[in-house]
Structures are given as C-alpha cells and as structure tokens.
C-alpha cells in the first residue's frame, strides 16, 4: 500500500462538507452489519466473522459512518475511523486511519466519498488525533483524488515512492509536488507548515 497523511498544518482549519440532497448520514448502530458487509462484498471484501469483529474492535466510538439513499433507505456508502498504529509497513504512533471507503457504483460522482472522508477526519480531530492517514492502492484513482481534495498528501517515506506518485499525479492531472510532501512523520507538521506559510 501507499500512504497519504493529513498534514498537521491543517489541524486549525479542518475541512467541512455537506451531505448532498437525497442522502442521509449517520453512525453505525447494531443491526447495520448485514448491509455494510454486503457493500464490502461488492468489492470482493468478504470478511469472516473474526475479521469483521477485529475491524469493529479498532473503530472509534461512532467511527463507522454510513450514508443512505433517502428515498430507498439503502446503504450506499461507508467509511471507518479506525485506531490502527501498525498497519504493516510503517508504524504510526497514535495513528488514526481512514478505513475502507466504499461507495456503491450507482451513487458515485455525487461527492459521497468526499463527505465521508471529511467527516472521518473531523471524528479523529474531535478525539484528539493529530496523526491521520489513509492507505491507498495506486489503481484506485478516484479514491486518491478524493483524498487529495480533502487535504491528504503522499507520504514519501521511501525514495522509490516518488516515481509511483508521479505516475499517479500524471494520471489524475494533479500537481506533482514531492518537495512539499513529508518524508517523515515529524516533517508532516514542521516542514510542511513552514513551507505553506512562506509561500503565502
């Protein structure tokens, strides 16, 4: 996986987003499992009972966010605000992770992924997190563009990641700006903040 970080210089000014007309947003309650897991299954994420329980155990309270299509009351999008400091390749102390953003294909293009990502960031901030990240797969370009728009930036913790991110940015027609992107977690707060303010 590739990682994107939500820079600490954005902590004083978190993003905001309004749920589009025709949709409602709420947190997970007991009984939502079947619909959530059927949405996961659309992406061929077929979780066992143990995997589902492990995922739920990492969620922040009110951290599984759900968007329903109002007229049909069908679950069409979800994301998790997950406490997961050790996702595998890199250790993120006190790490908050945006987990499993999913939008039903029939409801893409409505900004639902953006709304969920913003609300997940807000949930982490309200819980005191200042290290927030998301793991992405390079071929999921729509999701990566959503995270860019929310304010996330690539985490270049290995030199060879620069080329991969250059290809992704070219495909998205997004500015490729590696000198402004963090190479360490410390940099995501100090260097970036200074760079942004000095450029006006």
Task: Describe the overall structure.
- With 200 residues, the chain is of the alpha+beta class.
- The chain contains 6 helices and 7 strands, in the order ββααβββαβαβαα.
- Strands 2-3-4-5-6-1-7 form a 7-stranded mixed β-sheet, with helices on both faces.
- Helix 3 packs across helix 4 (141-150).
- The longest helix is centred in the middle third of the chain and has 15 residues, at 112-126.
- The protein is globular and about 45 Å long.
Residue stretches low in confidence (pLDDT < 50, at least 5 long) are 190-200
Any idea what the radius of gyration is? 17 Å
Mean pLDDT: 89
Number of strands: 7
Into which percentage range does the β-strand content fall?
15-25%
Order of strands in the sheet with most strands: 2-3-4-5-6-1-7
| N- to C-terminal distance | 33 Å
Secondary structure tally, helices: 6
- What is the succession of H and E elements? EEHHEEEHEHEHH
Helix proportion range: 25-40%
């Amino acid at each position: 996986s590739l990682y994107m970080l939500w820079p600490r210089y954005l902590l004083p000014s978190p993003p905001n987003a309004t749920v589009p007309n025709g949709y409602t947003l709420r947190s997970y309650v007991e009984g939502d499992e079947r619909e959530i897991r059927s949405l996961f299954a659309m992406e061929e994420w077929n979780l066992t009972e143990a995997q589902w329980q492990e995922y739920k155990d990492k969620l922040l309270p009110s951290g599984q966010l759900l968007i329903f299509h109002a007229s049909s009351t069908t679950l069409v999008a979800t994301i998790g605000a997950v406490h997961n400091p050790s996702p595998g390749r890199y250790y993120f102390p006190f790490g908050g992770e945006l987990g499993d953003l999913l939008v039903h294909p029939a409801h893409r293009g409505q900004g639902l992924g953006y709304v969920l990502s913003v609300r997940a960031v807000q949930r982490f901030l309200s819980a005191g997190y200042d290290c927030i990240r998301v793991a992405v797969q390079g071929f999921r370009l729509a999701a990566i563009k959503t995270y860019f728009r929310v304010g996330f930036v690539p985490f270049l913790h290995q030199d060879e990641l620069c080329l991969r991110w250059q290809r992704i940015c070219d495909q998205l027609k997004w500015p490729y700006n590696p000198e402004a992107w963090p190479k360490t977690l410390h940099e995501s707060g100090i260097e970036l903040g200074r760079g942004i303010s000095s450029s006006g």
